[in-house]
Amino acid sequence: MTTDLPESVPPPTGSGESPSTPSRRAFIATSTAVGGAVVAGGSFIAAPEEAAAEQAAAEGAAPASRVSLTVNGTRRTVTVDNRTSLLDLLREHLGLTGSKKGCNAGACGACTVLVDGHRVNACLTLAVRLEGAEVTTIEGLRDGDQLHPLQQAFIDQDAFQCGYCTPGQILSGVGCIQEGHTNSPEEIREWMSGNICRCGCYVKIVRAVEQTAGR
Fold first, then answer.
1. CA 42, CA 120: separation in Å to the nearest integer?
2. H or E segment at 153?
3. What pLDDT, in 10s, does the model give residues 42-86?
4. Which long-range contacts (CB under 8 A, 24 or more apart) does 180-187 make?
5. Which residue, 154, 148, 138, is CA-closest to 197?
6. The pTM is what?
7. Is residue 121 within 8 Å of residue 106, measured between CB atoms?
8. What is the pLDDT of residues 15-52, one digit of tens each?
9. Which residues contact 103 (CB under 8 A, 6 or more apart)?
10. Are the C-beta atoms of 62 and 82 separated by less than 8 Å?
């Protein structure tokens, strides 16, 4: 039985000798470590640059437009990103925060306003499409110190609790009355069904609309 080691096997540790050529295992380990460092280093350098380029491209691809419309009787001209909703125009650009952002998907009615006398969900309406339009928000309903009859009816009937949905409920109620959909409580509920009250004041809201329509 022979005790000679194959030539490819390095001498034992501590012998003070090193093999003339690296072993296959040492070569693979070294190559992997070096290659991984290069790849990792490249990714850490490139990622911020790519992100910055994408951000710049995105910012450059957002055109803006100038739009003029009448809000609560006052002519307003603003330049906005073409993706800006009427709700964000009112709240962020004009400081009219009475219109509330609820679901921001047209499902709750908290953002309801009147555009040319018709009820719309402001969160789903693009501001740039309203050139020359007349917009009425909750701030524009009263006449000086005199509340709109439906605003007063909401107080008389105690038709709110937290008040978050109230501006949209009132604007929707005004539209409902103007459209002539107030012949019965059932009809009012049907035509006001797009406005959600999470406090559950529906009965009193209907009474407030009835009171105003009867007046």
1. 52
2. helix 149-156
3. 444 445 555 554 564 556 667 999 999 999 999 999 999 999 999
4. 182/209, 182/210, 182/213, 185/210
5. 154
6. 0.72
7. yes
8. 454 545 556 666 555 555 544 444 444 444 445 555 55
9. 110, 123
10. yes
